[in-house]
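Schema walk-through. Below, the input block comes first and the output block second. Nothing else is stored per chain. Lengths vary across the set, and this one has 70 residues.
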Amino acid sequence: VGSQHSTATSALKPLQSYGESRFDDIRMNDLWYVDKTRFIPIVEDLGDQLIFVRPPRFGKTLFLSTMRSY
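--- output ---
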């Protein structure tokens, strides 16, 4: 009975997208992610050559993939 309950509970939760860097895959597989689309207009206004300086696993590649899909 206990294992059936945990399976049913986990089936209701979307999966986290940790380590996934393709925006299209995240959207198609209904994974969780931090929506940073509100920053796209700001980045568009900043210029043609930008450097994203953030720690590893901070969403740089995913944000760029989001911009490509935009």
